[in-house]
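In this supplementary section we document a worked example of the pipeline. Step one takes a protein sequence of length 141 as its only input; no multiple sequence alignment statistics are reported here. Step two produces a three-dimensional model, which step three serialises into structure tokens for compact storage. The input and output of this example are shown verbatim.
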Amino acid sequence: MSRTGEGAEARLEGSPEIPPQDENELRHILAAMQQSLTQIDGKIDSLSYRVDRMMERLDKQTERMDQVERRVSAVEDGQTALASGQLKVNTELDILNHKMDDLESRSRRNNLRVRGLAESTSIGLYASVEDKSLKRINRGG
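The serialised model returned by step three reads:
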């Protein structure tokens, strides 16, 4: 290479002349750097693809998590409504149990037997009740 322009494509204008051994070494280094850059670009593309896939998966998981949170919220709201309904039912059950006990007690009061008082059967009460009951039965009403 001479100073007249041969090999000017490898040199910058105004730069000092590079010895041929160094120029070959620099070309070799430049080629290795270009190859490394090509490999790095390929790896970056691969990583970019993987990151995009991971972002898609993350978006899907986020959407599923939102659905789960909405469902849990709906279940909690339903559980709150059921708990208040259960409280109301328990209160009503207590009231009905109290009424049932009261009615049962009242019905037992009507079934009391008085012992020690003499009953006389000579009045004829039994006979009159029996006759009236038979007449009613025969009428059907």
